[in-house]
Design goal:
Elements (H helix, E strand, L loop, with lengths): L32 H5 L20 E2 L13 E7 L19 E3 L2 E5 L4 E6 L5 E6 L18 E3 L2 E5 L4 E6 L5 E6 L14 E3 L2 E5 L10 E6 L5 E6 L31 E3 L4 E5 L21 E6 L5 E6 L15 E5 L2 E7 L4 E6 L5 E6 L7 E3 L5 E3 L9 E4 L13 E3 L4 E8 L2 E5 L13 E5 L5 E7 L5 E7 L8 E3 L3 E5 L4 E6 L5 E6 L9 E5 L2 E8 L5 H4 L11 E6 L8
Parallel strand pairs: 1-32
Antiparallel strand pairs: 2-38, 3-4, 4-5, 5-6, 7-8, 8-9, 9-10, 11-12, 12-13, 13-14, 15-16, 16-17, 17-18, 19-20, 20-21, 21-22, 23-24, 25-28, 26-27, 27-30, 28-29, 30-31, 32-33, 33-34, 34-35, 36-37, 37-38
């Protein structure tokens, strides 16, 4: 039987449906690789996803500090709102990290939205809406985590696996490249990363049984430079960790769906990879299943894997290792810190992948143990058909994708912790393209849960803990003002003392937090911005709040303006 597809015609240009002038200052043309290399020194800006290539989510700004934060209040609010029918309407969330370039803010939303705003006032300068098919297959929410800006272009990915380059002045589309097979269940949600003259992306969709990959594109033309598959095919190094017969490797998952970090000295991208597929039925993919649940170091020029470290071999708990890899130096050694979903904090030598230390960072871990030398011993897993197995942490992990931060001044890491378990019951399913390939029914605990912002040193010693009654499901930000900012699922945005965890300030934002705060300054005034919009894969990390209001606001805070003197 041959299926014929009907041409849906041209989508409406949402940029024309308002009085927005579609004219932003041309600041994006002045952003290139040299500025991105030294992004942290431009403390008034937030030029790239983590604030700098190292992933520390740390700012040198200190106008808002432990003494002044108590006077901080809203400066402006941008209400994104929703329009029309969207894919996965019940799952959208505001998960982005805004970028700021010399007074212009660029921020992405769900379902193909991108906005340029005046970073001082919140006035909209332009908007773009991509035409995303209503029936696109999405695993875990209609979300987008941010954009990249360079050479007069704003780069963003879409739920239907496209990479777009938009004109940074007008918001008009410059080029559009397909980066995945949406029919097979591939999608995209990460913030692109500009390195040298390339835009780096990663695929999503591991729950549909796709083969993960990273890609690089020429930032001027969109020409494809390289692809790095994160599951080896037969005959390649690592293929011996998959069944020799069949095609388990071809649908093996390992999608790198979170933005990589980068070290210009090693010329390596440090990316985390996702779970194997099917998530919970390990019997159909015997072996360690490289490079799933791994930290991989990828040569940025060639796209080849230089080394790897697997955090959870033969994963049957859905413990992606996609979370950020924070780069820091200590004792003359180049290090990497990674808080994994499996509940352990890994510190590696980032030049060669050698394990330096591994320690637990959440109270309840019973799926298995990892010794200090890295030996993994599984203890509880769903290996029998139809028999429920309860384990900690649940499949959303002791920390989900939301990011930890590192403060070089305190030499501490700050991590949002989810202490919640789940029950998985194995249900074998035959693979069918474009259909979820979980291999189990999963029920996350609706009670007996808690969360925290916890501070750790590089040796895994916990220095302090700020406790919350609910799991912490948003990224944290730390600054030279000795502050840590974090949002709660119940809507509070809090500022903590980075030295001891004392809560210094709180603001109720009206919706739960599942995004990433950042900070910048304009004309000498520091601002802290946080996207507020509860959603995503809520049933995976906090099912008791499935009915909570979504929200769709970007709230920007500052200290009161000083009165004019006469």
């Amino acid at each position: 039987m041959t299926l014929e597809y009907v041409d849906a015609g041209e989508a409406i240009d949402h940029g024309t449906l308002s009085s927005v002038p579609r004219n932003a200052p041309d600041v994006g043309f002045r952003v290139g690789y040299d500025r991105l290399l030294d992004a942290r020194s431009e403390s008034h800006n937030w030029l790239t996803y983590y604030g700098a290539y190292d992933g520390q989510r740390y700012s040198l700004l200190d106008q808002i500090n432990t003494d002044t934060v108590k006077r901080m209040g809203p400066a402006w609010i941008f209400q994104a709102g929703t329009a029309g029918m969207i894919a996965g309407a019940s799952t959208y969330a505001f998960e982005a990290t805004p970028l700021v370039v010399d007074g212009v803010m660029y921020v992405s939303g769900w379902d193909g939205w991108v906005w340029a705003l005046d970073a001082k006032t919140g006035d909209q300068l332009w908007r773009y809406k991509h035409a995303v098919p209503y029936d696109v297959s999405l695993c875990c929410g209609n979300v987008n985590r941010g954009v990249a800006v360079a050479k007069g272009k704003v780069f963003t990915v879409t739920p239907n696996a496209h990479l777009l380059a938009l004109d940074s002045v007008t918001g008009e589309r410059v080029w559009d490249k397909t980066i995945g097979d949406v029919r097979a269940g591939e999608s995209a949600s990460l913030a692109p990363l500009v390195v040298k003259d390339m835009v780096i992306t990663g695929s999503a969709g591991g729950e549909f049984g796709v083969r993960g990959h990273m890609d690089a594109f020429d930032l001027e033309s969109g020409q494809h430079r390289w692809r790095c598959y994160t599951v080896p095919k037969p005959g390649e190094p690592g293929s011996e960790t998959w069944p020799a017969d069949g095609e388990a490797w071809a649908r093996g998952g390992a999608n790198p769906w979170i933005t990589a970090t980068f070290d210009p000295d090693t010329n390596l991208l440090y990316a985390g990879t996702g779970n194997p597929a099917p998530d919970f039925d390990g019997a159909v993919r015997e072996g360690d299943n490289l490079y799933t649940d791994s930290i991989i170091a990828v040569d940025v020029d060639s796209g080849t894997i230089q080394w790897h470290y697997q955090c959870t071999p033969h994963d049957v708990w859905d413990y992606d290792s996609t979370m950020e890899n924070i780069l820091f130096d200590q004792g003359g050694r180049k290090m990497l810190g990674h808080f994994d979903k499996n509940g352990y904090f890994f510190v590696l030598d980032r030049t060669n992948g050698e394990l330096v230390s591994v320690t637990p960072y959440v109270d309840r871990i019973d799926w298995g143990t990892i010794t200090r030398d890295g030996k993994v011993t599984p203890r509880k897993y769903p290996d029998a058909e139809g028999e429920p197995v309860h384990f900690y942490p649940g499949p959303a992990g002791a920390k989900e994708w939301t990011h930890a931060a590192y403060n070089p001044g305190t030499e501490l890491f700050y991590v949002p912790v989810q202490d919640v378990g789940a029950t998985a019951t194995r249900r074998r399913r035959e693979f069918r393209e474009g259909i979820p390939y979980w291999g189990a029914g999963v029920q996350v605990d609706a009670d007996d849960m808690r969360g925290s912002i916890s501070a750790f040193d590089s040796e895994g010693n916990e220095r302090w803990r700020w406790r919350n009654t609910l799991p912490m499901c948003s990224s944290v930000l730390t600054t030279a003002g000795n502050l840590v900012f974090a949002g709660t699922p119940s809507g509070e945005f809090v500022a903590l003392d980075a030295r001891n965890g004392e809560k210094l300030w709180e603001f109720q934002c009206g919706s739960g937090h599942h995004g990433s705060p950042m900070t910048y300054s304009v004309e000498g005034r520091q601002y802290v911005a946080v996207p507020v919009g509860w959603g995503g894969w809520i049933e995976g990390f906090l099912p008791g709040m499935l009915g909570a209001g979504h929200g769709s606001a970007l709230i920007v805070f500052a200290l009161p303006e000083e009165p004019a003197t006469r």
